[in-house]
Amino acid sequence: MQAHIRHATAADIPAIQRIYAYGDAFHRAEAPWFFGEHEGPARSAEYLSAQLHGDSSAILVAQEPGAEPVGLLHVSVRTAPDLPFYTPRRYAMIEALIVLPEAQRRGIGTTLLRRAEAWALEQGLTQIEMGVWEFNITAQRLYEREGYATIRRALRKELPGPAEEGDE
Q1: What's the pLDDT at 145?
Q2: Whole-angstrom distance, CA of residue 36 vs CA of residue 29
Q3: Stretch 11-36: mean pLDDT, rounded?
Q4: Residue 168 clears pLDDT 70, i.e. is over it
Q5: Among 25, 35, 53, 150, which has the highest number of CB atoms less than 10 A from its own CB?
Q6: First vs last C-alpha separation in the chain
């Protein structure tokens, strides 16, 4: 059974929060130094409502007939900083792409990506970007299959903590 992709509505906010909670837990398990624990939804209903109703963003959901949404893609319009060394441009940024485990490996992520690309073209944009964590190999493979290429890497190094008194 193929999932239907559609623009999310206010009625979808609890399902969107549930899907984000899964994505947040996945990321927290892999990078707890970056993603912290929190009480309640990490994205308020007000924040999500603004994303749903704004002119420069969209949340798409994947839903099978008679079921709750099983995936989402959040995309927004970005503008390059107004500094002389940047080329002026507007582009789409995929803020999040999450598919629940029970719906993975069924083409939902691919379909969501393609719908986001269509949305970007409707906004008059000709570039789309996203970030992906190094530990998320499955997502990296999907993005590469869909023609996305790495343009930048972020690096990190753990430094020894400050010496405790008496450690000298």
Answers
A1: 96
A2: 10
A3: 96
A4: no
A5: 35
A6: 65
Paired tokens of 34: 């970056």
Q: What rounded mean pLDDT belongs to the chain?
A: 94
Please report, rounded to a whole number, the percentage of residues in the chain having pLDDT higher than 70: 96
Residue pair 147/110 in contact (Cβ under 8 Å)? The answer is no
Pinpoint the alpha helices (H) of the chain.
13-30, 45-53, 108-122, 137-145
Structure tokens, 143 = 């993005």
pTM: 0.90
Nearest of 151, 52, 145, 134 to residue 105 by alpha carbon: 145
- In whole angstroms, give the CA distance from residue 81 to residue 141: 30
Contact 91, 127 (CB under 8 A): yes
Question: How far apart (Å, rounded) are the C-alpha atoms in residues 53 and 8?
Answer: 10
What was the pLDDT predicted at 161?
87
